[in-house]
Amino acid sequence: MTETLDGDYDYVIVGGGTAGCVLANRLSETPGTRVLLLEAGGNDRYHWVQIPVGYLYCIGNPRVDWMMKTASEPGLNGRSLVYPRGKVLGGCTSINGMIYMRGQAADYDGWRQMGNTGWGWDDVLPWFRKSEDHHGGETDLHGAGGEWKVTTQRLSWDILRAFQEAAKEFGYLPTADFNTGSNEGSGFFEVNQKNGVRWNTTKAFLRPAMKRPNLRVLTHAITDRLILDGKRVTGVAFRHKGRAMRVSARAEVLLAAGAINSPKLLELSGIGQPDRLSALGITPDHELPGVGENLQDHLQIRTVFKVSGAETLNEKANSLTGRLGIALKYALTRSGPLSMAPSQFGMFTRSDPALATPDLEYHVQPLSTDRLGDPLHPFPAITVSVCNLRPESVGDCHITRNEADLQPDIRLNYLSAERDKQVAVASIRQARTIMTARALQPYAPQEYLPGHSIHSDADLLHEAGNIATTIFHPVGTCKMGSDPMAVVSPDLKVHGLSGLRVIDASIMPKIVSGNTASPVIMIAEKAAGMIRSSSG
After folding, report:
1. How many CB atoms lie within 10 A of CB 222?
2. Transmembrane residues, as ranges (predicted)?
3. Which among 501, 437, 513 has a CA at the least distance from the CA of 475?
4. Phi and psi dihedrals of 93, rounded to 5?
5. Alpha-carbon span 10 to 248, nearest angstrom
6. Catalytic residues
7. Are strands 9-14 and 271-272 parallel, antiparallel or unpaired?
């Protein structure tokens, strides 16, 4: 028996993650507007969500991670990757690396040139600034007093400063701000924290809004499908505490379930590729061939170098006295390694000098491990991860059965494009070159991964397949545009349907040249502005 949720709602938001929390706040600012937020996960009141280094204990933790995996990837020598997605209020901002990054102005100007009017750099900058609370105060480029806190990190490592000096020797110069529209150069990442504690979209946007009587939040509410009346989406069918429920939306349903789960819910609702849906026993109600296609992600290649005479997290974390010292420092000052973002130092460079803007992003870490989730190495070392910001390899994400509790089939097709193979090899060679700089010689760096004996392009590409991993930036599966494969229009309404918008990373037609959390907040801010304008 299906019950109808009590109460009438103007907007039903599916997904209480990065975008959903922003939407819930902005739409409930109007007292007469009733908003319901459905989140399949639980609340974010978990100590490892709050402590920045706790991402190590959140990824792979079923309490806060959906525990997804990719399909076997030929470009990664047949490996399947763990694919963390936030199963918690705040979504991936509750388990991610906390790096504040917008991407490049050229990314958004590229969206506009693809026909997405209103999405150029000059159009989106005000929406970045709207919610920003930047440590440097208000400027033409940054906002102050907003909900999304941007601050500097509360620790430093000599080995990372030496890496910055090393980069300078090869013309990669320091920059004071990665978020001006050009992120070229090197520097220490700004992070979304407050006083050494993670700052997610739950704290920033949702919790203050939950005091309003016109906003209702249901956690552990698993959406099964959207409800259609002809070509209008009128509500949502979901499960809550073992009960089958349905709820109507007088104005719109806002799908903010992320780049993996938004296309999944569309397909479960009969929206997508008719032949694919029919084969799964789902009645095709609306043909949209682009649903689940155009999946893009950043693949990082984790080169590791042993060092001598340098303090790294490896030796601290592998000794009892080191761990006690780390815990005491955090307890007393909210600083030190427990306040660490996964990557402290970043750099944006070109794999080819002929490129107009940087296409490589470095994440340099004072720690090392064979793979994410494994124990740290027993020797001092640093990780010099480098990723291709603009991959040409494109994958897809589709359901394989008509069951909402199953993860879809996630295929990234990493390193399938010839250009991506060339960039992978070039990026390893560039990282190796920087490690030969005079500034690093006092630390006697020795390559550990992929290994100094590997030289040919073919061998380097093979080893890239062994050591590369996702940087957790899936986008594009409900892309914005007007071409036959586009799913939403520039106002984020689903083509051919009324009463439904998609508002999350899935709408990006091309992946941005940097980390994706803050661009998704911008997307939600802009979407909320469009919704409020259209509702009068």
Report:
1. 14
2. none
3. 513
4. -70, -10
5. 8
6. 473
7. unpaired
pLDDT band (50, 70, 90) for residue 536 = low
Total count of domains within the chain? 1
Q: Which two tokens stand for residue 36?
A: 């319901």
Q: Confirm if 385 and 364 have CB atoms less than 8 A apart.
A: yes
Q: What's the CATH code of the domain at 433?
A: 3.50.50.60
pLDDT value at 4 more than 90: no
pLDDT at 428 over 90: yes
Radius of gyration of the chain (CA): 23
User: Which residues lie closer than 8 Å to 338 by C-beta, 6 or more apart?
Assistant: 51, 52, 53, 196, 326, 327, 329, 330
Which of 61, 66, 487, 8 is closest to 271 using CA atoms? 487
Rounded to a whole number of angstroms, the distance between the first and last alpha carbons of the chain is: 38
310: tokens are: 């340098």
Q: Which 3-state string (H, E, C) describes 29-77?
A: CCCCCCEEEECCCECCCCHHHHCHHHHHHHCCCCCCECCEECCCEHHHC
Q: Domain range for residue 85?
A: 2-534
Average pLDDT score over the chain: 96
